[in-house]
């Protein structure tokens, strides 16, 4: 399994978990870094995603679009041009050949557009059906 490293940790009496030194070194983790914590309540799993900047503006976007070739790439290219940093993405087909969904956890710190303007431009794309956004605090 390429790219995966396994180790065990124990939660202490204050519910803290220490990331093992070898993992901190491999991942370049340092004191004071900010992490996005994602809990999957169905799987009973927690994921930690390190954020490069302490002032990160992290949002969850849900984009429903036409399920045709190249649509996801066009939206991704637009987001890249607007300096939206994609931290985690997941896409799926809802109705083959009709509708697809792309869920994104993104840092908008470098994006020069306001949230409303960014969402407005995404919604204006002819193949976009719906856009939802939620700030993650």
Structural notes for this entry:
This protein is α+β, with helices and mostly antiparallel strands and 137 residues long. The protein has a domain at 58-135: Alpha-Beta Plaits (2-Layer Sandwich), CATH 3.30.70.260. The chain is 20% helix and 37% strand. The chain is built from three helices and six strands; from the N terminus they run αβββαββαβ. The protein has helices at 21-27, 71-81, 115-123; strands spanning 34-40, 45-51, 58-66, 85-95, 99-107, 128-135. The strands form two sheets. The protein has a four-stranded antiparallel β-sheet with strand order 4-5-3-6, covered by helices on one side. A two-stranded antiparallel sheet has the order 1-2. Strand 1 (34-40) and strand 2 (45-51) form a beta hairpin. The chain is globular, with a radius of gyration of 18 Å. The two termini are 33 Å apart.
Task: Quickly describe the structure.
The chain is 20% helix and 37% strand. The protein is of the alpha+beta class.
- Biggest sheet statistics: 4 strands, antiparallel
Under CATH, the topology of one domain is which?
Alpha-Beta Plaits
Order of adjacent strands in the largest pleated sheet? 4-5-3-6
Q: According to CATH, what is the class of one domain?
A: Alpha Beta
Distance between the termini: 33 Å
Shape: globular
What's the total number of strands?
6
Write the H/E string, N to C.
HEEEHEEHE
Could you tell me the mean pLDDT? 91
CATH H level, superfamily name of one domain:
ACT domain
The proportion of residues forming helix, as a percent range, comes to 10-25%
| Unreliable residue stretches | none
Please identify the structural class as seen in this structure: alpha+beta
Give me the Rg, rounded: 18 Å
How many helices?
Answer: 3
Supply the CATH architecture of one domain. 2-Layer Sandwich
Percent of residues in beta strands: 35-45%
């Amino acid at each position: 399994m390429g790219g995966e490293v396994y180790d065990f940790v124990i939660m202490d009496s204050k519910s803290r978990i220490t990331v093992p030194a070898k993992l901190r070194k491999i991942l370049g983790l340092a004191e004071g870094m900010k992490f996005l914590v994602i809990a999957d309540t169905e799987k009973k799993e927690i994921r930690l995603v390190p954020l490069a900047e302490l002032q990160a503006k992290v949002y969850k976007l849900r984009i429903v679009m036409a399920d045709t070739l190249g649509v996801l790439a066009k939206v991704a290219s637009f987001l890249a041009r607007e300096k939206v940093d994609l931290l985690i993405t997941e896409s799926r087909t809802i109705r083959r050949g009709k509708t697809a969904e792309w869920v994104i956890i993104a840092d908008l710190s470098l994006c020069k557009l306001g949230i409303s303007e960014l969402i407005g431009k995404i919604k204006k794309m002819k193949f976009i059906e719906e856009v939802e956004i939620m700030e993650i605090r």
